[in-house]
């Protein structure tokens, strides 16, 4: 997303950058929106895990 707006990015762009074919992409994600959702979900879960480990004073 540093090179293009999200709306301009295609699954071909993603698979080329990840060095895999489109078929492999579609084995794991339904579309680029599903990939984005799962990335956001992973980051939020990591943030929750880190914040939960911080003791309250």
Give the count of helical stretches: 3
Mean pLDDT: 94
Structural class: mainly alpha
The outline comes out as: elongated
The description of the largest β-sheet is: none
Q: What oligomeric state do these chains adopt?
A: single chain
**How large is the share of residues in beta strands?**
under 5%
Query: How many domains, in number, for the residues?
Result: 1
Q: Quote the distance from N terminus to C terminus.
A: 39 Å
Question: What's the order of the H and E elements?
Answer: HHH
Uncertain segments = none
In CATH terms, what is the architecture?
Answer: Orthogonal Bundle
Radius of gyration: 15 Å
Q: Within the CATH hierarchy, at the fold level, what is the topology? A: Arc Repressor Mutant, subunit A
Summarize the structure.
With 57 residues, this protein is mainly α.
What does this protein structure show overall?
By secondary structure, the chain is mostly helical. It has a single domain, classed as Arc Repressor Mutant, subunit A. Helices cover 65% and strands 0% of the residues. It has three helices and no strands. The chain has helices at 11-18, 22-28, 32-53. It starts with 10 loop residues before the first helix and ends with a helix. 0% of the residues are buried. The mean pLDDT is 94.
């Amino acid at each position: 997303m540093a090179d293009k707006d999200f709306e301009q990015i295609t699954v071909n762009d993603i698979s080329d950058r990840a060095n895999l074919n489109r078929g492999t992409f579609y084995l794991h994600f339904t579309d680029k929106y599903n990939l984005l959702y799962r990335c956001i979900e992973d980051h939020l879960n990591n943030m929750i895990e880190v914040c939960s480990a911080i003791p309250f004073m």
